[in-house]
Amino acid sequence: MSIDEELKELSKRRSQIVKGGGEDRIKAQHDKGKLTARERIDFLFDKGSFTEVNAFMRHRSTELGIKELQGDGVVTGYGTIEKRLVFCYSQDFTVMGGSLGEIHAQKICYIMDQARKTGAPLIGLNDSGGARIQEGVDSLKGYGEIFYRNTIASGVIPQITAILGPCAGGAVYSPAIGDFILMAEGSSMMFITGPQVIKTVTGEDVSPLELGGAVPHSQKSGMAHLTGENDEEVLSLIKELLSYIPSNNLEDSPVVKTKDNPLRKTASITKIIPEDPNAPYDVRDIITEVIDDGKFFEIHSQFAGSIVVGFSRIDGKSIGIIANNPVQQAGVLDINSADKASRFIRFCDAFNIPILTFVDTPGYMPGVQQEYGGIIRHGAKLLYAYSEATVPMLTVILRKAYGGAYIAMASKHLRADCVFALPSAEIAVMGPEGAANIIFKKEIENSEDSERTRKEKIEEYKEKFANPYKAAESGYVDDVIDPALLRIKLINALKIFESKREDFPRKKHGNIPL
């Protein structure tokens, strides 16, 4: 065979692979409002930067009518996103529903290994009917190999998964082990057992989207960190997320030049926090006032609303933000908010991203269901996550910081590096009303005007304890500051603690209260 004939054969084979499942199935994918596996890659990566690997690998199984599967239903390779190296696999639903077989899994595992070795982020674009039944236990073995690699790479490289179609059964665990899950509204679904199985076993009648769509996973289960209207919006969110995080655990996040003045005053904070200590406000207004250009990339925005988490920049440098939000349930800590914050803290700590915590919480959520649901165990995760973190940690007490919640929200006692309090801060074992009713119970009951006495005792407690100065006297607050200077103080503190080092006892690993 001549060189021309060889090149012609190569071109023919590659053309067949690129076509995937064929024009009809590509059209069906487009009719659903979805991009194909290769179109998603083209949209995500810098133009012309993606290099496909193992394109010619093919399945060995021919049982039960399996015919030639182009690329075995997955496109794998590497390229650059905003000039940074990233590895990716993109499942091709046009090829046997993107089902995962032995070779399909091998291609993904190879990419995962290369990403870990080179210290580059891994992105999975999932669109698959699940395990390839025709390949039996070989397909299950493939999932196991993927899960193992997800676990080994955890905390070493960022692992981001976009659910852009079905993701069912064992397939859901790879995204769950990773760091961030994004879902496309209306076209993505994720569940362990589908509606038909649930109907058979429990009698419950539910549609696929009601069971595992972007809405239930972003609002109820908390599985979806971010959602977009379609494939393009989800892929754009991945690009934005990557801009805040480093490529691996040995690097720092990209620094972005900002025109926002580091000496800018933040006097408007005094107008955001109400004079009435029980009046709500949205803590996002505080966050956007302090950060660069008011740009806050929120994570889990629709889940556990009493706490807010997300990425931003201060003086051009990435920072992870955790904040109680008084506009939702007064900013209490409950099972979901503790889980949400703990996982975010651990990601930031694993990837060298400083943590800024804004505190305004009356405590942990009371209630029988919270206790039965394990608020003790879930609340302990928050204590564990902050205590274990070694990145720079800055804390700002905005208003209420009561009881165990005061300790849990990055207090000095959990080794926060710098704790600021605004003059509006109330730091105490409990709220003034409840404390006065307990401490001065007899005096109030024996008084001729019990209501007047109660109010007097509440004010007495506020004056003595429910303020930032008692904590400052004990060294638990580094400084009580003018809100107008908050941005300046935070920038200076970050510069001081960016070289922070912590040493812990040698051990295999701790035992977080899961």
CATH top level of the largest domain? Answer: Alpha Beta
| Span between termini | 62 Å
Uncertain regions: pLDDT < 50 for 5+ in a row?
none
* Average of per-residue pLDDT values: 93
Q: Give helix % range.
A: 25-40%
Write the CATH architecture name of the largest domain: Alpha-Beta Complex
Structure in words:
By secondary structure, this protein is α/β, with parallel strands linked by helices. It has 2 domains: 3-242, 2-enoyl-CoA Hydratase, Chain A, domain 1 (Alpha-Beta Complex), CATH 3.90.226.10; 269-431 and 466-497, 2-enoyl-CoA Hydratase, Chain A, domain 1, CATH 3.90.226. The chain has helices at residues 3-18, 23-31, 37-44, 102-118, 137-153, 173-177, 195-202, 208-212, 214-219, 231-242, 269-272, 283-290, 335-350, 368-372, 375-388, 403-408, 432-439, 441-446, 450-464, 468-473, 486-497; strands at residues 51-52, 74-81, 84-91, 122-126, 159-163, 166-168, 180-184, 189-191, 226-228, 297-299, 307-314, 317-324, 355-361, 393-402, 418-421, 426-428, 479-480. The strands form 3 sheets. Strands 10, 11, 12, 13, 14, 15, 16 and 17 form an 8-stranded mixed β-sheet that branches. Strand 12, helix 13 (335-350) and strand 13 (355-361) form a beta-alpha-beta unit. The longest helix has 17 residues, at 102-118. The protein starts with a helix and ends in a 17-residue tail after the last helix.
